[in-house]
Automatic annotation (TrEMBL):
One Pfam family, short name: Virul_fac_BrkB
Transmembrane segments: 29-51, 89-109, 130-163, 175-195, 207-228, 240-261
InterPro entries: Virul_fac_BrkB
GO CC terms of this entry: plasma membrane
Species: Metabacillus lacus
Keyword Metal-binding: no
Key words, A-Z: Cell membrane, Membrane, Transmembrane, Transmembrane helix
Top-level taxon of origin: Bacteria
Name of the protein in question: YihY family inner membrane protein
The keyword Transport appears for this protein: no
Membrane protein topology class: Multi-pass membrane protein
NCBIfam families attached to this UniProt entry: yihY_not_rbn (TIGR00765)
Compartments (UniProt record): Cell membrane
Length: 275
């Protein structure tokens, strides 16, 4: 009986995958993620006068997750934009980030509504307002994630040095920072699944999907990065736009993991409600 229920649940997930057009929605998310990436990085880098960060901090944070072959392209585009020294760059970065990223969040809202089989009864301004608020929340969480290595390293080094464990700290910090990154991702996904759909959900309803998306996205990104580094030669196939192709595929994987996490939550919720 247990195996049958497991097969039935997996069959339901496969049915949801095709009926809810997960591949198409993932492609849509990849498009909006690409549109919002560079305005968001410009916005972060132009905040350096107010934050104890450097351009290298932002790029090294992104390099932890971005596939091999994309960082050089990102650095070149950013340097070209920042060398214009436009005084309105910060304002442009804020507005472009909010608009393009909120479009991506709005697409996630529609995908999660489809997963839970609910229509959008909220007004346009209410739905867009939720998307913008979630965008601000995600920007805040990412800034905190950037600041944690700066302050966390200094605080931890001070505490460990009091007890003479300064060398031990560096080994522990390398492990702790990966746990913190995964925890931050988990919080972001849980917030998306909790507030984005037009459905009253409790925290326990979104934890399975948040855990799946966190683990699945980290694993899928690592596998894809290894594949790009070891086997694929996108530059030979696509020429100078090879980096963009890699970035789009990575965003496509990211969008798919987010939507699959929502589908998993919806499937669990449906079974729980049926009981």
């Amino acid at each position: 009986m247990r195996d049958n229920r497991k097969e039935s649940f997996l069959a339901e997930l496969m049915k949801r995958f095709f009926n809810d057009d997960v591949t198409g929605m993932s492609a849509e998310l990849a498009y909006f993620f690409l549109l919002s990436l560079f305005p968001f990085l410009i916005f972060l880098i132009t905040l350096f006068g107010f934050l104890p960060l450097s351009e290298e901090d932002v790029l090294s944070f992104l390099a932890q997750y971005a596939p091999e072959g994309t960082m050089l392209m990102i650095e070149n585009i950013l340097s070209q934009v920042l060398n214009t020294q436009n005084g309105g760059l910060l304002s442009f970065g804020i507005l472009a980030t909010i608009w393009s990223a909120s479009n991506g969040i709005h697409s996630i809202v529609r995908a999660l509504n489809k997963a839970f089989e609910v229509s959008e009864s909220r007004s346009f301004f209410a739905a867009r307002g939720i998307s913008i608020l979630l965008t601000f929340a995600m920007v805040f969480v990412i800034i905190v994630a950037l600041l944690l290595p700066v302050f966390g390293h200094e605080i931890g080094l001070f505490i460990f040095s009091l007890f003479g464990f300064s060398e031990l700290f560096f080994h522990l910090w390398n492990a702790i920072r990966w746990v913190l990154s995964a925890l931050i991702l988990f919080v972001v996904f849980a917030a998306l699944y909790l507030f984005a759909p037009n459905k009253h959900l409790l925290l326990k309803h979104v934890l399975p999907g948040a855990a799946f998306s966190t683990i699945g996205w980290i694993a899928a990104s690592a596998i894809f990065s290894y594949f790009v580094t070891s086997f694929a030669n996108f530059s030979a196939m696509y020429g100078s736009i090879g980096g963009i192709i890699i970035l789009m595929i990575w965003f496509y994987i990211t969008g798919m993991m987010i939507i699959l996490g929502g589908e998993l939550n919806a499937a669990f919720y449906k079974r729980h409600s049926a009981k």
